């Protein structure tokens, strides 16, 4: 081989190396940018989603958890939108390929680092994760979400090539030009959103909503069973209000579906343990008989908090649940 | 058959039921006496027996209503036959309710004259904006802070005198805060159930 040939070969090797590195960056960067933008979005809501899953201490989470549509919209849409835009940008400017695969990797990585971590913590009984309903079901929901996010990533890859997405992707110059104004606007928006949507939220509106979402037939049952067992009706109703917030009707419906395979669990609006499925009315009767019989005779008004705490804890020892139920009780019953 | 308008004590209602009647909104207070005329799928037709809207026929919605059933605001009628004994001691700044307690008040001695006043059944929640602290029951406030009881003098000109919860007085009898408990909740829940006729809760002596 002559010197020129050797130099040519070396030059070709270096070019190949540069192209390989460039290729890697063309895939690593969109992955990293998508991933951190998604994380940033959820961080902006200061939401420990999904570790706390349904947390009554964060009313944004409550608002989201009220319906399955909101839950999956909040979980999937940001990933879909951000990943489509970022991959679309790289497709448009750097002509990358394997878009669906890239999308799946983004979706999966995000899912594993959030839902996957939550699952791991649940399996290890880590105290930083709260279990609101039976663990197998909670883990199953996380697994479903992981799968859904992977599918969302795949769809993002597809969407990144459609003309609509391509039309809204900016050029590099456009990004630089608008970067500062966008940054300012987004920070201001998130700040205002947090100030007005979450910080000064009065629990009354959440208790109103939950109470008015409980079917009239269940309210009737609460009244009837409370009278039968001399239970404090407002206390039983307060518990149902909080349980209805934490595990709304659509979650109880999924628990019912689960009971066809795994019979043992907690069921109904009062989340009563049972070897088989029981409905809302049955759960009320069992729970009142077990935990709230004769509470009508206990002074639950003044001083209110200590007596209520002692009555509620045997039913559910979780601090957040007890605190919220006491609040719900005082929502129903004037203090004094 | 006679009933009472109840189930209004939670924070969604705070003692008032707001209803659309003849193209405008009216308010019925907790413990209003009602005669039930008929039930329909969406409301109950009633005749109001006491208060500002007495003898009016009004459609009251159900408190809970869906495909599974409905639950009314109305409850069985019970009458409190115990006489209301209530007085204002202007010199010692006290509201004295015999079977309840003594409460600290603020009152302008020069405006509210001595004598007997009738306590009117509340007409509507007070419209003037109140400090939100008045409603904070954890700090001695009350969800009924916007319910004021109007005082109608037995003799003399009817003025704008009220028994209410607050911080200061411009002629009213103002029950002031006790951080340890919600005094106005106690007073409201005691007074609102009393009646001497279809217009008044009872009479109050100011001395």
Structure notes:
The complex is a heterodimer of chains A (336) and B (207). By secondary structure, chain A is mainly alpha-helical. Chain A has helices at 3-44, 59-65, 68-94, 99-123, 135-159, 163-168, 172-199, 203-213, 216-228, 233-246, 249-258, 280-292, 304-312, 319-332, and strands at residues 265-267, 272-274. A two-stranded antiparallel ribbon of chain A has the order 1-2. In chain A, helix 4 (99-123) runs antiparallel to helix 5 and helix 13 (304-312) crosses helix 14 (319-332). In chain A, 73% of the residues lie in helices and 2% in strands. Chain B has one helix at residues 183-191; strands spanning 2-5, 16-21, 24-29, 33-39, 43-48, 57-61, 64-66, 69-71, 74-76, 86-89, 94-97, 101-107, 115-120, 149-153, 162-165, 173-175, 200-206. In chain B, the strands form four sheets. Chain B has an eight-stranded mixed β-barrel. In chain B, strands 6-5-4-1-9 form a five-stranded antiparallel sheet, with no helix packed on it. Chain B has a two-stranded antiparallel ribbon with strand order 2-3. In chain B, a hairpin with an 8-residue loop joins strand 5 and strand 6 (57-61). The longest helix of chain B is centred in the C-terminal third of the chain and has 9 residues, at 183-191. Chain B is globular and about 55 Å long. The model of chain B has no long low-confidence stretch (mean pLDDT 91). Helices cover 4% and strands 40% of the residues of chain B. Chain B starts with a strand and ends with a strand. With 207 residues, chain B is mainly β. Chain A binds chain B through residues 204, 207-208, 211-212, 214-220, 223, 302, 330-336, and chain B through 9-12, 62, 64-66, 68-71, 137-138, 142-144, 181-186, 189.
């Amino acid at each position: 081989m002559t010197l020129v040939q050797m130099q040519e070969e070396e030059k070709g090797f270096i070019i190949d190396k540069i192209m390989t590195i460039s290729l890697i960056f063309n895939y690593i960067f969109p992955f990293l940018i998508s991933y951190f933008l998604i994380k940033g979005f959820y961080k902006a809501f200061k939401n420990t989603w999904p570790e706390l899953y349904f947390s009554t201490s964060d009313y944004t989470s409550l608002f989201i958890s009220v319906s399955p549509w909101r839950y999956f919209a909040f979980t999937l849409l940001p990933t879909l939108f951000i990943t489509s835009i970022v991959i679309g940008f790289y497709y448009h400017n750097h002509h990358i390929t394997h878009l669906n695969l890239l999308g799946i990797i983004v979706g999966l990585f995000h899912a594993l680092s959030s839902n996957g971590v939550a699952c791991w913590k649940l399996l290890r009984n880590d105290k930083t994760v709260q279990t609101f309903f039976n663990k197998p079901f909670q883990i199953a929901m996380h697994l479903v979400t992981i799968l859904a996010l992977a599918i969302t990533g795949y769809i993002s890859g597809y969407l990144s090539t459609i003309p609509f997405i391509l039309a809204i992707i900016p050029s590099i110059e456009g990004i630089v030009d608008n970067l500062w104004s966008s940054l300012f606007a987004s920070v201001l928006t998130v700040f205002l959103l947090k100030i007005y949507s979450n910080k000064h939220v009065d629990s009354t509106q959440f208790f109103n909503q939950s109470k008015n979402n409980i079917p009239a037939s269940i309210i009737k049952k609460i009244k009837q069973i409370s009278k039968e067992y001399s239970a404090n009706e407002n206390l039983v109703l307060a518990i149902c209000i909080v349980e209805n917030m934490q595990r709304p009707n659509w979650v109880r419906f999924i628990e019912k579906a689960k009971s066809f395979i795994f019979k043992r669990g907690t069921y109904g609006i009062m989340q009563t343990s049972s070897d088989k499925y029981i409905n809302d009315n049955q759960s009320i009767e069992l729970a009142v008989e077990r935990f709230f019989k004769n509470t009508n005779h206990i002074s639950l008004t003044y001083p209110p908090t200590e007596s209520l705490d002692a009555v509620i804890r045997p039913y559910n020892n979780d601090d957040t649940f007890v605190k919220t139920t006491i609040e719900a009780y005082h929502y129903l019953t004037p203090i004094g | 058959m006679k009933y009472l308008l109840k189930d209004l004590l939670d924070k969604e209602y705070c003692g008032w039921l707001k209803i659309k009647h003849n193209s405008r909104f009216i308010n019925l207070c907790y413990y209003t006496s009602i005669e039930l005329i008929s039930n329909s799928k969406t409301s109950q037709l009633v005749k109001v027996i006491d208060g500002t809207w007495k003898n009016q026929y009004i459609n009251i919605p159900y408190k809970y209503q869906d495909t599974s059933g409905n639950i009314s605001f109305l409850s069985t009628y019970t009458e409190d036959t115990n006489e209301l004994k209530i007085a204002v001691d202007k010199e010692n700044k006290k509201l004295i309710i015999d079977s309840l307690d003594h409460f600290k008040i603020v009152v302008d001695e020069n405006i509210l004259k001595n004598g007997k006043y009738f306590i009117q059944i509340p007409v509507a929640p007070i419209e003037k904006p109140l400090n939100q602290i008045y409603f904070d029951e954890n700090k001695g406030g009350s969800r009924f802070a916007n319910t004021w009881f109007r005082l109608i003098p037995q003799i003399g000109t009817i003025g704008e005198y009220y028994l209410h919860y607050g911080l200061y007085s411009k002629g009213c009898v103002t029950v002031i805060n006790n951080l340890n408990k919600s005094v106005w909740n106690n007073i409201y829940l005691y007074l609102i159930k009393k009646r001497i006729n279809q217009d008044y809760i009872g009479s109050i002596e100011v001395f």
